[in-house]
Amino acid sequence: MPRTISGTNPSKMPGTVPRKRKANDHDAPPTPKLCPCGKHSIDESCKALTKKAELSMTLSTVNILVGTDRQMFTLHRDLLMIYCLKIREPLEAQDPEDNKLILPKVDPAVLAFQVSRLYSQNGFRSPIEVKKPNLCEEWLLADFLQCSTIKNRCMDALRKRVSIHYRDHGNQSPIPGFVERVYRDCPKDSLLRKFVTDCIVSQNPFRNHVEGSEKYEACKQLLEKYSELGMSIAMASGKVWDEEFPWGEEHRSAYMEKPVDLGLEWASIIRARQSEEDLKRLADSGCFRSMIELEHLARFTVLE
What we know:
Order of helices and strands: HEEHHEHHHHHHHHHHH
Strand content: 5-15%
CATH topology of the largest domain: Potassium Channel Kv1.1, Chain A
Largest sheet: 3 strands, mixed
Structural class: mainly alpha
Number of helices: 14
Distance between the termini: 91 Å
Protein name: BTB domain-containing protein
Organism: Hymenoscyphus albidus
CATH superfamily of the largest domain: Potassium Channel Kv1.1, Chain A
Radius of gyration: 33 Å
Strand order of the largest sheet: 2-1-3
Shape: elongated
CATH class of the largest domain: Alpha Beta
Number of domains: 3
């Protein structure tokens, strides 16, 4: 019997003939693994399915052209339809092939800040010199777009600024220039007007400033220029603030718009776009976006 070298396979030795292996279960071709749906091979079909799912999960976008020079913002369509009720109807009625919306009266700089608030919860911060819009400009655009989320964030930012100003300077009436902008441009029944009016009432400028002083005269000129301001102050004077202030947290709800229910709004948009039967058909074909939208509809009931 020939000797073999330890660690070598006799069948590989020169002059030896490989022995035939008996057929057994190990010789059977491996069973392909299936994806969770049980219909596709992970090694083959699911590669294409995964790519299809990636494409399906990509939210559609729309190009918003703003200002006289038509500066373009590419934004997610569903996000705009949920948050900005003003442009939901135009987007819903839009031909799917027409992927743009023109808003010539919108200031690009103000819209840039509002977009950053929607996407990042914070205001836009740029490494270059950028004209930052004031809170009144941001609030006015949000009011035009009917975006309660941005209006509430502007109001919270204004409440914080007034609180800091009062902490640092004591009894001070709102800045006349800001008050004038609010009463000149904001709707009569706006919560921004209400907040400014309550601040004036709680910090009576004719009580806190010496008659004939610059601030006293500035407030007097505002009342002479805007009769609505005097009427609003008279109507709001029924509330006695004492040691409380309009910018206090306990009064926040009085100046907040009704928040958007994201779940219900998205469910409404999904149903307006496609029937549940179509969604089920697409989901059965492997469209992950349709699977997610169906699951969302199952959790949220759209209020008629």
